[in-house]
Amino acid sequence: MVFRNATVLTIDPSLGMIEGGDVLVVDNRIVAVGRKVVVPESAVEIDASGGILMPGMVDTHRHMWQTALRGFGADWTLTNYFMFYYINWGKIFRAEDIYAGNLLAAIEAVDSGVTTTVDWSHGLQTVEYADAALEAVPGRFVLAYGNLLGAPWQWTKAPEFADFIRRRIDGRGDMLRMQLAFDVTGDPAFPEKAAFEVARDFNLPVTTHAGVWGATNDNGIRLMHEHGFMTPSTIYVHATTLSDDSYHRIAATGGHASVSAESEQNAGQGYPPTWMLRRHNIPVSLSMDTSVWWSADLFSAMRATLNADRSREHMEAHKRNETVMLSHLRAEQVVTWATLGGAQALGMDSIIGSITPGKKADLVLIKNDQSPVMFPLLHPYGHVVFQAGRGDVHTVMVDGKVVKHDHHLLDVDLAKARQAVLRTVEYAQAQMGEQAWTQAMNPEKALVELIENPYTYTERERDKAAQKRVEQES
Ligand SMILES: [Zn+2]
Predict the structure, then answer these.
(1) Phi, psi of 113 (to 5 degrees)
(2) Residue 85 and residue 73: Cα distance in Å, rounded?
(3) How many angstroms separate the Cα of 254 from the Cα of each of 73, 190, 251, 329, 374?
C-alpha cells in the first residue's frame, strides 16, 4: 500500500517534513519514504493529496473503563472524582462494564488517530476484570494493570495475577504490552515497595500518578528514588505539583512524564507542567486521562498543552513586568510529544513513533476535502495542533492494517459497543438510584463572592432601584 502526495510529517529528525511525499508500506512495515517512490505494481494507492500524513498518535494514560460513563463528570473537581470512584461507586462496576468502557474507548482512540493507547486500568477488582479489559480492543494496546479498591502490595502478590501475565501477556509482541499502575502515597513505611519488586521481577514498567495536589507529592518520589525504583521505564502521570528536587530525581533517572493538560487544568492536580519539564529536560508524552470528563483525542491534548505552556510563559513574564517576545514551545514539538514522545515513554521508539523505513506502519492521514479548514496548508505542524480535529482523520493504519478509511471505521461493530455501554449506564443508574445519580453528575456549585464595586451609586444603579420599587408597588 502506498500513500501518495501527502505533506509527510515523519517526526524522524533525519527525514523532517516532506511535501508531496509518498510512504510505501509492505505487510506491516514502512518500507520507503520520499518523493515519487517507486512501488510494486500490486501496491494499492491512497491519494493523500491535500492531506497531512503523520505517525499514529500515542496516548500514555487513559482510563478506558470510565468511557462507559462518557461526559458524566463534566463539572467535577478532583474531589468529586475521588468521591465517585474511590469512595462511593467504583465498587459497583462489573467485569462486563470494564469490557463496555474499554471497547468504546478503543474504537474511539483509533477513530481519532491514536494507534497506541495505555489503558490505565485501575478498575480491575479481579483478574476476571482484566480478562474483560483485553477483549476486542482494536489498536496497539498497553494494559496498565491497576485496582483502585485494593492495595498494590497485595493484589500484585496474588497467584492469579502472575498467572494472568503468563496467560494473557507473555509472548504477545508489540501489539499488547503491560505496565503496573499504582500510586505512591508517601507513607514513610513505603508499603508500595513490594509492588515495585513485583514489577521488577516481571520486568514491567510502573506508571504512577505523581505530583497530584492533595494526593501524591514529593515524598512519594523521594521514597521511590531512595529505594532504587525510579528507572527510565517509569512514567510519571501529571508530574505537576512537584519541587525542583523531585524533577531533578526524575530527570537523573531517565523517567518520562505523561501530561494531560486538559485534565490538569480542569481537575486541579496542578498547573500543566511542560513549562517546568522543558527546563529540567524531562521527556514528555501526552495523554487525555478519562472521557468521563474530557475529550479523548490527542488534537485536544496537543492544543491544551500548547495553550497551557504559552499561557504560563506569559504569566511568569508579566509578573516580572516583562513581555514574551518569542514563543518557547513550538507546534512541532507538541506534535512530536504526541507521537515519538509517547513511543519513547513506552520504550517502543525503535518500533513506532515516527515515519521511518523499517518501523511498524502506524499512520494517520489527516485529510478532509469537504472542510474549509484544510487549506491553505502553510504551517503543517500548526495545522495539526490548531486547525485539524478528529473529524479530519481520513485514514488510520495500525500495524500495516487499515482500520479507518475515507472517514469510516472498518471492521468495527459500533452497535455492539453501543449496546454494551447502554447496559452499563442502565445498570449503574439502577445501582446508584436516581437521586445519587443526579447529584453525582451535578455537584453543588461553589459560591461566587461578588467583589465590591466602588462605582455602585451610578445613575444606572439608581434607575434599577427605582424600577424595582415600581415593580414591588404594582
Ligand atoms: Zn489518571
Answers:
(1) 90, 10
(2) 11
(3) 34, 22, 5, 21, 39
Ligand 1 centroid–CA 202 distance in Å is 23
Q: How far is the CA of 287 from the centre of ligand 1 (A)?
A: 9
Distance (angstroms) between ligand 1 centre and the Cα of 208 equals 9
- Residue 192, CA distances (Å) to 76, 123, 145, 184 in order: 29, 18, 15, 7
Residue 159 C-beta-side C-alpha neighbours within 13 Å: 0
Q: Which three cell numbers stand for residue 403?
A: 482500520
Going 156 to 162 to 168 to 173, the CA torsion angle's sign is positive
pLDDT digits (tens, 9 = 90+) for 166-218: 999 988 899 999 999 999 999 999 999 999 999 999 999 999 999 999 999 99
Phi, psi torsion values for 303, nearest 5 degrees: -65, -45
Query: Is the CA virtual torsion 389, 392, 397, 402 positive or negative?
Result: positive
Task: Kindly give the distance from the C-alpha atom of residue 77 to the centroid of ligand 1, in angstroms, as a whole number.
Answer: 13
What's the CA-to-centroid distance between 337 and ligand 1, angstroms? 18
Ligand 1 centroid to residue 209 C-alpha, Å: 6
Looking at residue 112, what DSSP letter applies?
T
Side chain identity, residue 310: R
Domains and CATH numbers, the chain: 1-54+353-412 (2.30.40.10), 57-349 (3.20.20.140)
Q: Is the pTM of this model over 0.90?
A: yes
Centre of ligand 1 to C-alpha 371, Å, is: 34
Cα separation, 395 vs 402, whole angstroms: 7
